[in-house]
């Protein structure tokens, strides 16, 4: 680890790398140290070790600037320095130097303190530089993160602007189609609508989103009807729409259904004369049930269950019937609405009793 | 005092939860009104304080650990008020007069007693009616003055009596 220059004054030492400069400190005389700003480095390369030769790193430098601080040598005929790694550390140093030269962090923040000159009183300053250096590093890291985040969001903003343009475009095309109804064949209209659908833009042309629906939803409804027969029968004829969603998508694996598509398809069951029904409870809970399933019968049987046990909570009822708590609660609420049950609401929870009033 | 006989609903937990089903609620409220009035009649209570009432045996059945919420009590009191059995004493609805017999009903009882004993056309002081020896066996014995007065005023509006002022208070003449 020596600098081979005109004289042999600089021999064994330690080379230190910071984000701003390269520092060499004499191992024996700690007060002797010199530095080169990284900005002065044009290029650097490794020189592998060989027989009798230690590994080296050659650093090519810019010509010295006129405002150069006084150093050990005012000028030199060489435009490079060689760092010879007698023991070890060359690989690691090369890697770190590459990192610092790539990041060029000295460009972001100016060096706050000059390297301590060769005076003993400066020894304490070295340590202060260390802490300040750490703080500076943290600050730089934070700025970097900030920059990355805002750059990422810039892309997102651009995407949203493009999407808006797309929607506008599709709307204008759709309205043009509407105007020129006679000129465009129905086939093309349907194709255009399906393109829109596949892009996720809800059909802007037809008013009704359910009822008449689209071909896609019709097909989907038929598919669902076939698929759900068995599961529904297993579960006593009724399933919450969320359960259906999970079941269907798990089975599909790919080309998953969106919740919207599922609801729209289910709304078509009745008009397509399929044996399933989509039903919405007062609370907003949506279920799919077999047409043959009679909720009224279920309610009467609920009354029997409750009378049998004296009183039941939704959880107890669910356990009894093997239904989900959500569905069993809906059934109890419906029975209450019909006047078969009444409720007892206390700190102990919500229980249902036969309506003896 | 005889022990009060609680109706079956009193031991039915749902009785203490305000029922959401409209028809069920109507039946529930009717039962509560009836219970409240008979309880007050039994204990000869003429006024109620809402907060105290919530802790009383009437609205709080410790045996089944159920009690009515203040909200439910207010609903019941409103029903009673609509039926003419309750009157609020203050704007904040913290105290009320409870008339388990409406003034008109009291008036009728009193007049029956008066005519039965052939004392029509005589004058009575209020004190005589509520606390006199002659009325000891009557239901209206011990009636609080404000209630007695209202009863007599009811009779007055029917033309069966007239409330008059006497030296040391009020009195009534029956026709």
TrEMBL record, chain A:
One GO-annotated biological process of the protein: protein transport to vacuole involved in ubiquitin-dependent protein catabolic process via the multivesicular body sorting pathway
GO CC terms of this entry: ESCRT II complex; late endosome membrane
Gene Ontology molecular functions: phosphatidylinositol-3-phosphate binding; ubiquitin binding
Presence of the UniProt keyword Ribosomal protein in the record: no
Intracellular or extracellular location(s): Cytoplasm; Endosome
Alphabetical keyword list: Coiled coil, Cytoplasm, Endosome, Protein transport, Transport
Pfam families with a match to the protein in the record: EAP30
Residue ranges occupied by any GLUE N-terminal domain in the UniProt entry: 1-113
Main location: cytoplasm
Coiled coil: none
Family: Belongs to the VPS36 family.
Self-association state and partner proteins as the record states: Component of the endosomal sorting complex required for transport II (ESCRT-II).
PANTHER family on file: VACUOLAR PROTEIN-SORTING-ASSOCIATED PROTEIN 36
Function of the molecule: Component of the ESCRT-II complex (endosomal sorting complex required for transport II), which is required for multivesicular body (MVB) formation and sorting of endosomal cargo proteins into MVBs.
Name of this chain's protein: Vacuolar protein-sorting-associated protein 36
Taxonomic path: Eukaryota, Metazoa, Chordata, Craniata, Vertebrata
Name of the encoding gene: VPS36
TrEMBL record, chain B:
A Pfam family it matches: ESCRT-II
Subcellular location: Cytoplasm
Primary location recorded for the protein, binned into one broad class: cytoplasm
Keyword Cytoplasm included in the entry's annotation: yes
GO cellular component: ESCRT II complex
Residues spanning the membrane: none
One BP annotation, GO: protein transport to vacuole involved in ubiquitin-dependent protein catabolic process via the multivesicular body sorting pathway
Annotated keywords: Cytoplasm, Protein transport, Transport
Gene3D superfamilies in the cross-refs: Winged helix' DNA-binding domain. Chain C. Domain 1, Winged helix-like DNA-binding domain superfamily/Winged helix DNA-binding domain
UniProt entry tagged with the keyword Cytoplasm: yes
GO molecular function, one term: protein homodimerization activity
Family: Belongs to the VPS25 family.
Protein name per UniProt: Vacuolar protein-sorting-associated protein 25
Organism name: Denticeps clupeoides
Top-level taxonomy: Eukaryota, Metazoa, Chordata, Craniata, Vertebrata
